[in-house]
Q: What sequence folds into this?
């Protein structure tokens, strides 16, 4: 009896090339077809995949991986060390956007057919956390098909790997029309024990939220995500469908420019240089109301800039309480008894209910006298405007972050450490603050092997952020996956859907 | 009131045409009666707006709403046709009554070739196939004097000159050899030589086929040349009707008189043309009594209150109180 | 009839007036389909004079260029060549624009269609007042309105008609409105293009009488265009007969009608319907009207002319003066007809 | 083709002149004439056909009411939805007051952010009408001017204007708006953009509709310019400009008015569509279209009022304006009386 | 005829070039493609490298020149997002859009024309008034709302029709068609109706008003006077004479049909070019945007060409041949 899973997401994969695109959904989807040396389980813990085991040198610069034997690619070719070396080389290509995952890798050495050694340029105790998305391709197949390089911007240099795939994963793509439908069947020769009972998977992108929900309600899809928060009740009340909700790893927060003397583009003194003003804005935000009314309880208010799932000492922190009266006092103390005004930039197509959150914040801030002029725009324009460290064209803004390595250091070095071109830190430090202690701690966290020590240093960073209100964290948004009741699946916090956990009754 | 003569091809009895409108009812044509015999040409003249075109349109059943026949009968070959349902009337149109409208430039559908319009009309009325219909169309074109008909039949209206187009319109009216032709100002705005061609064509038809023609025109020369009898209309009524010689030479109604006097003549020079003072009343302001009374030089008290009926005087009929027993002498003197 | 007028210098004199209309296909079509440029020779070299207080009429077949001459004179078209002199001042070519502008107000035109020549959205008062305003003849609204009222009375309408719209008038009345407008500009010279063709004879008589009266009273000069030869006979001092863009004969009215010389004039007069019912059969002008784009060579009338000879087909006859009658015809020149 | 017999109503120029003459001529027939200006308008055929069509009267009343409410929104509306400080998120998503969970403060409920829907609709209608009207006026002024020039002057002017119109037409209106709005957002500062967005929309929508006016006017002008009354004006010595303005323009306005009413609806809908595509007015000052688009997200979740009410207002407005347009089209056509 | 074609061709090229140029200048401001492509933790060097690769550092005229040169050879570059040749991508999507637009156009014409004729003939009839009023729905609600309501009704509540996609497509040569499978046919119903509604209203109203004009003309009266049947008069003579303006407007509207298809395609997840374009705008995929705009301009030009040729078929007065008859007037 055929068990077909029909599911839809809001976009399609950009292509099937596992190295070309730094797009969460594309890589997440291809993880069903390709595999890395390691993989993440349903709880996002690293577990062995194409490597059965590994060892690391004491200085955390040389990693030796013992490759799994007997693994075959979908075309029947054997998996071996050559494929690993080849794949690491392919992904490091300057045109491959996944190259950041191997940025710290200096060299990959074949020891024998089933052993490789990875040498990093600096100590990197958490290397494996990036390797789960370094997918291994078949070297022979790539050479046959001319896919040894990713596509570059030339009509004659288009890699066939974008249109076909050759992995070792649990599923095999049999048929694909880009943007319309991709069909997969289980890999009969997969090395691991199958948990699913699927015979076929079809993936269809459905961009429009209401259409996607309609398709789920009408039974045209067995599983669809994301379900807009407001439609969750509708899907749940429909017989035969329900929504699976869970916390996502992404944290949403507000940043305030703390470097410029004047508000960008104006002659007004930058009020956010004063911590009291920042704290006033913080305490003006009724996070519970946002959670309840806008997120429909599908958010976890957060005091720090990372998901509690990814940082064990998260419970040490608590948000400043919502207190408009305190806010007003703070403003008065800071010399703004009559309030102040600033621009508030916001994306309108990036995060869950981003625009509404911004509108709510605007309205709440207005009540204490901070007049925010909201400017919401599509992400393409928004990011172009705010993500330019050389020209910080914003006063206050909203952004979200999921640490690619699922680790706090990623947050610290990208968002909190001060911006430095040569040290490659603070690229996303939108608050633009400079805290010498944090800059000192940052490299130490990276190379610290002991978890306890490392967590303590991270906690110190978060405490400084909290005390100085460098950022105003809002919440971790939640995942909402709609599905038919006869489908059981595992929802991963990184919003990645793995078919290997799916069963249909 | 004249009796319908037995041999009349068309009899119009007491026709009244109204335009109901929000302020009341406009009477555009009021109680007119006339006959046309087979082979006869009845000329219709009169001041612009007198109701000539409306009478023609009423006969063929093409009054545009809200215009309507309020009273009277139209009898074609002994059969009353004014109240026939649309479909019945349609069969009469083109088949038994042909119509020629004033403007040759706009009467033809510009999108179809002349031949197609002819063939279409022929096939509507006669049981001919396409080929036979085409042959007939060619005959017709030759008959109306289009040179090189064989070649011209597939041309479009815009490729014809005004005079030729008018001839095509006539050919279309003649398709099914109708018994009656209503020709509404067929020569206005054409120069004299084209005018002459068209008039002789119409006259030829009457002689050869016994077709009756109602010829509406402003051109007295054309009337004099072509018509057998002439009706003079004024303000929706017939002022005078009679043989053309008599009406033109010895006009009886003061309006006809004025009209005839207004015609300039080549050869004898006058400094001032005779003119009828004033202008025709608007439909909503037609005076009681005789509608001509405000302009009439021989107006009598009676004219102001009592409407004159048509009455026989010599071979004509005139609607004027001057010809009542009492006033006869006064009128004859003119 | 006004013999004095002729002796004076003419008011308007037209010399070798030419107007061609370019009706060529677009450039690319000509290039690819190898077509030549094509011109309608609407007016192809005509000359005449009009004396002060005179009525000069133009007659001829439809499309022979009468209206074009009228429009050239009032400046609606630029002449392709030739000169137009008004009181001895050249106003034809584009370079003479300044003079034209100065003299223009002395001319007015009555258009063929009485309805089309009145702006349907304007009240009669504004229509008639327009030339007064443009010329600045009078100042002050009240004064102008009084003048408009006077003009309306002059043409036989009531001053109360000022407030009405053109569509509320009958054809004859509209024609009078356009005459009133023409007069409001206090012109000396009036061009009348078929002013009565759509009217019945009684209204026509009213208008012709008015025009005559004005001429007698104010000494107006008319250029009169009509198809109706009886009307032409009635109103004109002199008549010009046009054929395919050229004047083929012009003379005193009486002379022309009594003794037409050009074969075309003769045929035209033969085609007049016979109101007298003398039993005369009228003879339409034979043959088809030639195209003004490719006019026949030589004398344009030769294909339809009973007197045509070899010379007529090749050589264009020039007008010659025979005791005040100007005729352009080889046969007349040769004395074959006379 | 369009001879308009009752200028008084639809041609301000005509009405204006009528008044002037009425004043300046007190001497003649004064008793009848004092009533005449108003009476003539009231008694004109256009007015009569208006008075005798119930549907039209209803449409006119509805339009007038909507206009009134929109114009006087700041006084009529119970809340001030564009003042963010007055909005309380905790009031969000309340159903209309007659429903069980309804709140009497909010007659027809609140939207997802806690704005009073009624007030938001009133203010939003205002924005929609501004966008609709200004863009139609913009398109109309540009289109009519260029169309008049194109038709009256002919030659290279005509060829050039028509080519530009063709280029404009070959990029569908929505795309122009999408790109232009995107561009402006990139060019000018965010504050300026928020201030300017309405005018940006007006500009983009107006830009996309001017060719329609230009083509129509050009067509009618080509017919009109050869009519004898225009020639007559030239003989009188009127300047080109005056002829275009005073003679030709009033005679080509008939179809223009009709296109304008239909385009008013189209403009409002385009604005709504643009906000669907993410380039509409700012969310803090929603137009009807933005509201519908916002509400559309809540349709399945049972919050029907957020879409249905603004949708209904929009539909009724468009319906009424179009019924008026239909009527005007027929009433202005003398052949259809 | 050849001259006509050559002229149109030249015009077409000019129009397309201007469109492309305008578009190109606008792209600058749509957003930054680089941010959409790189990983979040990409370094400045990575970004700079990519920028260089995409040619974004060249001055705009140079970029445009390169683009125009390539486009002239049919090379529209590679999509930033999909890493595939833009020409392939667009060709893949074209059948879907064209089938949708054409179906909608046919639907609009099939319903709009008879309704227009009917309401024109029976101007004051009750049915006409009902039709006229109901047809306004087509232009009184935004397309996206109509689409969503249709989905809700026919897919969710009634479950009769699919809510998204094209259903089963059948490959015929290089063309993927909807029309050859039951599910494909079912799928096109809702989007086609959504798209057609506006056009239908427009066509209907246009034909009605043109009919009202034409029915009053002399030649219609004369056709009746000739005794032609009602059908021949109403359809053969009256309708045909309304066609020139109707064809013009329908031609112009086909352009907007393709534009509005963006919305319909989005709502119904119809895998056509419009959706591709919209997505391209979101991620600033400049090659796709430019190719799409040029293609639309191209379609417009082709449609105009067809419209002009139809004029010639419909209206003999517009044919270029010289009048053979002597005469004028
Ligand atoms: N649709 C209409 N509504 C109101 N009145 C009309 C209508 N059609 C014609 N009339 C009026 O009916 C009268 C007669 O019109 P008709 O067309 O028969 O005149 P006519 O004698 O043919 O004039 P002409 O010589 O100018 O053609 C005119 O006064 C005209 O105003
Ligand atoms: N603007 C124009 N462009 C091209 N040809 C023109 C133009 N105006 C007039 N013609 C042509 O010039 C010729 C003379 O036209 P005109 O109007 O002067 O004739 P007419 O003698 O006044 O004729 P009618 O008696 O019919 O009014 C005609 O063949 C006409 O087609
Ligand atoms: Mg008539
Ligand atoms: Mg003329």
A:
């Amino acid at each position: 009896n055929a068990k077909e899973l029909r599911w839809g997401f809001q976009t399609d994969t950009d292509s099937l090339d596992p190295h070309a695109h730094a797009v969460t959904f594309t890589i997440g989807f291809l993880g069903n077809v390709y595999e890395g040396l390691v993989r993440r389980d349903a709880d996002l813990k690293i577990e062995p995949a194409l490597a059965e085991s590994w060892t690391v040198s004491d200085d955390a610069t040389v990693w030796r991986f013992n490759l799994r034997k007997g693994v075959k690619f979908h075309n029947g070719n054997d998996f071996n060390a050559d494929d690993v070396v080849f794949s690491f080389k392919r992904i490091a290509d300057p045109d491959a956007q996944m190259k950041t995952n191997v940025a710290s890798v200096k060299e990959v050495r074949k020891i024998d057919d089933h052993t490789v050694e990875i040498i990093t340029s600096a100590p990197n105790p958490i290397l494996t956390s990036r390797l789960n998305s370094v997918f291994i391709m078949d070297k022979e197949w790539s050479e046959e098909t001319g896919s040894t390089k990713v596509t570059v911007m030339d009509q004659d240099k288009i890699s066939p790997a974008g249109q076909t795939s050759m992995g070792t994963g649990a599923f095999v793509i049999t048929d694909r029309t880009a943007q319309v439908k991709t069909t997969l069947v289980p890999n009969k020769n997969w090395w691991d024990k199958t948990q699913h009972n699927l015979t076929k998977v079809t993936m269809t992108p459905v961009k429009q939220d209401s259409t996607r929900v309609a398709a789920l309600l009408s039974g045209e899809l067995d599983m669809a995500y994301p379900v807009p928060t407001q439609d969750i009740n509708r899907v749940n009340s429909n017989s035969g469908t329900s929504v699976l909700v869970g916390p996502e790893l992404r944290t949403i927060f507000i940043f305030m420019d703390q470097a410029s003397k004047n508000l960008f583009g104006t002659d007004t003194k930058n009020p956010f240089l004063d911590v009291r003003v920042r704290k006033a804005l913080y305490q003006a935000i009724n996070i519970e109301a946002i959670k309840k009314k806008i997120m429909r309880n599908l958010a976890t208010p957060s005091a720090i800039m990372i998901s509690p799932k990814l940082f064990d000492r998260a419970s040490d922190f608590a948000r400043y309480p919502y207190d408009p009266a305190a806010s007003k006092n703070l403003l008065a103390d800071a010399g703004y008894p009559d309030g102040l005004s600033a621009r508030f930039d916001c994306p309108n197509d990036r995060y869950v209910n981003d625009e509404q959150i911004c509108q709510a914040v605007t309205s709440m801030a207005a009540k204490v006298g901070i007049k925010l002029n909201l400017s919401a725009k599509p992400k393409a324009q928004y990011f172009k405007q705010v993500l330019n460290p050389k020209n910080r064209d914003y006063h206050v803004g909203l952004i979200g972050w999921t640490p690619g390595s699922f680790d706090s250091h990623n947050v610290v070095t990208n968002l909190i450490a001060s911006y430095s071109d040569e040290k490659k830190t603070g690229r996303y430090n939108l608050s633009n603050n400079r805290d010498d202690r944090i800059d000192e701690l940052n490299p130490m966290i990276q190379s610290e092997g002991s978890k306890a020590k490392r967590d303590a240093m991270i906690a110190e960073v978060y405490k400084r952020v909290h005390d100085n209100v460098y950022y105003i964290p809002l919440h971790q948004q939640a995942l909402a996956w709609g599905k038919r009741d006869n489908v059981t699946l595992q929802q991963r916090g990184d919003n990645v859907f793995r078919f290997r956990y799916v069963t249909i009754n | 009131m004249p009796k319908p003569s037995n041999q009349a091809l068309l009899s119009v009895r007491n026709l009244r045409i109204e335009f109901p409108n929000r302020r009341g009812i406009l009477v555009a044509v009021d109680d007119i009666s006339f006959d046309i015999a087979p082979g006869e040409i009845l000329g219709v003249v009169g001041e612009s707006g007198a109701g000539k075109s409306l009478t023609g349109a009423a006969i063929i059943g093409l009054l545009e709403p809200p215009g309507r026949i309020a009273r009277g009968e139209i009898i074609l070959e002994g059969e009353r046709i004014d109240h026939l349902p649309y479909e019945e009337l349609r069969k009469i149109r083109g088949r038994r009554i042909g119509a020629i409208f004033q403007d040759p430039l706009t009467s033809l559908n510009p999108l179809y070739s002349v031949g197609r319009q002819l063939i279409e009309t022929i096939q509507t009325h006669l049981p001919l196939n396409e080929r036979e219909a085409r042959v007939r169309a060619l005959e017709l074109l030759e008959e109306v004097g289009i040179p090189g008909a064989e070649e011209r039949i597939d041309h479009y209206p815009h490729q014809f000159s005004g005079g030729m187009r008018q001839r095509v319109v006539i050919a279309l009216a003649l398709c099914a050899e109708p018994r009656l032709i209503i020709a509404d100002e067929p020569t206005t705005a054409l120069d004299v030589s084209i005018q002459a061609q068209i008039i002789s064509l119409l006259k030829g038809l009457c002689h050869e086929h016994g077709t009756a023609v109602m010829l509406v025109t402003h051109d007295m020369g054309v009337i004099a040349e072509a018509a057998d009898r002439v009706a003079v209309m004024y303000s929706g009524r017939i002022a005078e009707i009679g043989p053309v010689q008599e009406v033109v030479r010895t006009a009886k109604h003061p309006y006809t008189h004025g009209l005839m006097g207004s015609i300039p003549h080549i050869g004898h020079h006058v400094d001032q043309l005779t003119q009828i003072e004033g202008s025709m009343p608007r439909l909503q302001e037609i005076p009681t009594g005789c509608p001509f009374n405000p302009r009439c030089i021989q107006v009598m008290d009676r004219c102001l209150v009592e409407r004159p009926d048509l009455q026989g005087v010599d071979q004509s009929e005139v609607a004027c109180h001057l010809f009542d027993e009492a006033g006869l002498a006064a009128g004859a003197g003119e | 009839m006004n013999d004095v007028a002729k002796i004076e210098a003419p008011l308007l004199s037209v010399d070798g007036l030419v107007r061609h209309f370019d009706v060529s296909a677009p450039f690319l079509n000509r290039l690819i389909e190898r077509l030549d440029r094509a011109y309608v020779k609407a007016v192809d070299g005509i000359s005449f004079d009009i004396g002060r207080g005179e009525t000069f009429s133009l007659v001829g077949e439809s499309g022979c260029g009468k209206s074009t001459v009228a429009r050239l004179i009032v400046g609606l078209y630029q002449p392709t060549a030739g000169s137009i002199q008004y009181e001895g001042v050249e106003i034809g070519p584009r370079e003479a624009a300044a003079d034209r502008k100065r003299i223009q107000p002395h001319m007015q035109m009555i258009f063929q269609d009485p309805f089309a020549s009145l702006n349907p959205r304007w009240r009669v008062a504004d229509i008639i007042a327009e030339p007064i305003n443009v010329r600045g003849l009078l100042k002050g609204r009240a004064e102008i309105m009084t003048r408009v009222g006077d003009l309306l009375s002059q043409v036989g309408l009531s001053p109360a008609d000022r407030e009405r719209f053109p569509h509320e008038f009958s054809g004859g009345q509209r024609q009078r409105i356009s005459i009133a407008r023409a007069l409001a500009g206090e012109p000396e010279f009036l061009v009348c293009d078929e002013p009565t063709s759509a009217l019945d004879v009684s209204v026509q008589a009213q208008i012709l009488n008015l025009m005559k009266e004005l001429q007698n009273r104010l000494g107006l000069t008319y250029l009169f265009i009509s198809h109706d030869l009886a009307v032409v006979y009635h109103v004109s001092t002199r008549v010009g007969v046009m054929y395919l863009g050229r004047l083929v004969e012009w003379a005193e009215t009486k002379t022309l009608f009594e003794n037409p010389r050009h074969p075309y004039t003769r045929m035209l007069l033969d085609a007049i319907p016979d109101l007298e019912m003398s039993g005369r059969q009228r003879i339409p002008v034979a043959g088809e009207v030639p195209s003004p784009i490719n006019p026949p060579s030589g004398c344009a009338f030769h294909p339809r002319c009973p007197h045509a000879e070899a010379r007529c087909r090749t050589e264009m006859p020039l007008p010659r003066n025979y005791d005040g009658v100007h005729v352009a015809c080889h046969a007349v020149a040769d004395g074959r007809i006379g | 083709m369009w001879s308009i017999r009752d200028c008084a109503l639809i041609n301000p120029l005509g009405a204006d002149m009528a008044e002037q003459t009425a004043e300046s001529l007190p001497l003649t027939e004064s008793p009848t004439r004092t009533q005449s200006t108003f009476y003539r308008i009231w008694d004109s055929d256009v007015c009569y056909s208006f008075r005798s069509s119930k549907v039209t009267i209803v449409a006119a009343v509805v339009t007038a009411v909507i206009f009134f409410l929109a114009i006087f929104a700041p006084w009529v509306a119970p809340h001030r939805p564009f003042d963010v400080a007055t909005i309380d998120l905790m009031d969000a998503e309340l159903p209309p007051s007659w429903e069980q969970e309804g709140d009497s403060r909010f007659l027809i409920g609140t939207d997802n952010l806690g704005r009073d829907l009624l007030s938001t609709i009133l203010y939003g209608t205002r924005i929609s009408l501004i966008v609709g009207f200004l863009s139609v006026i913009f398109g109309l002024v540009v289109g009519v001017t260029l169309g008049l020039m194109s038709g009256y002057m002919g030659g290279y002017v005509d060829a050039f204007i028509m080519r530009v119109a063709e280029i404009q037409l070959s990029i569908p209106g929505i795309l122009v708006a999408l790109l232009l709005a995107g561009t402006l957002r990139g060019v000018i500062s965010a504050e300026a953009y928020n201030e300017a967005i309405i005018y940006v929309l007006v500009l983009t929508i107006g830009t996309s509709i001017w060719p329609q006016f230009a083509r129509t006017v050009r067509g009618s002008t080509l017919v009109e310019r050869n009519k004898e009354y225009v020639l007559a004006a030239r003989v009188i010595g009127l300047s080109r400009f005056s002829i275009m303005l005073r003679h030709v323009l009033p005679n080509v306005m008939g179809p223009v008015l009709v296109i304008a009413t239909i385009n008013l609806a189209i403009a409002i809908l385009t604005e709504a569509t643009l906000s669907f595509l993410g380039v509409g007015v700012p969310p803090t000052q929603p137009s009807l279209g933005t509201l519908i688009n916002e509400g559309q997200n809540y349709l399945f979740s049972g919050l029907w009022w957020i879409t249905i009410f603004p949708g209904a207002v929009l539909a009724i407005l468009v319906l009424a304006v179009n019924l008026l347009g239909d009527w005007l089209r027929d009433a202005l056509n003398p052949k259809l009386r | 005829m050849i001259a006509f074609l050559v002229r149109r061709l030249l015009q077409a090229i000019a129009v397309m070039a201007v469109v492309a140029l305008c578009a190109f200048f606008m792209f600058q401001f749509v957003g930054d493609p680089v941010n959409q492509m790189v990983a979040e933790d990409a370094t400045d060097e990575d970004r700079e490298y990519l920028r260089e690769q995409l040619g974004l550092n060249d001055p705009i005229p140079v970029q445009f020149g390169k683009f125009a040169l390539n486009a002239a050879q049919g090379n529209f570059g590679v999509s930033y997002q999909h890493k595939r040749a833009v020409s392939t991508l667009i060709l893949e999507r074209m059948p879907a859009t064209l089938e949708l637009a054409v179906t909608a156009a046919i639907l609009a014409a099939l319903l709009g024309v008879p309704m227009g004729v009917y309401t024109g003939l029976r101007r004051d009839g009750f049915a006409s008034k009902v039709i006229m009023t109901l047809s306004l729905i087509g232009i009184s609600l935004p397309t996206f709302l109509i689409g969503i309501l249709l989905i809700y009704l026919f897919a969710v509540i009634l479950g009769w029709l699919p809510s998204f996609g094209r259903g089963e497509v059948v490959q015929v040569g290089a063309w993927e068609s909807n029309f050859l499978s039951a599910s494909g046919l079912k799928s096109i119903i809702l989007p086609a109706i959504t798209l057609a509604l506006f056009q239908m209203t427009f066509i209907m109203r246009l034909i009605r008003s043109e009919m009202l004009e034409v029915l009053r003309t002399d030649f219609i009266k004369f056709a009746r006077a000739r005794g032609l049947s009602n059908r021949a008069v109403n359809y053969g003579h009256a309708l045909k004479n309304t066609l020139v303006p109707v064809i013009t407007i329908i031609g112009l509207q086909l352009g907007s049909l393709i534009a509005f298809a963006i919305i319909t395609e989005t709502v119904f997840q119809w895998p056509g070019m419009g959706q591709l374009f919209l997505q391209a705008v979101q991620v600033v995929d400049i090659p796709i945007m430019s190719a799409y705009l040029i293609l639309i301009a191209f379609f417009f030009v082709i449609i105009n060409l067809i419209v002009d040729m139809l004029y010639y078929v419909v209206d003999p007065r517009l044919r270029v041949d010289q009048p053979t008859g002597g005469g004028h007037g």
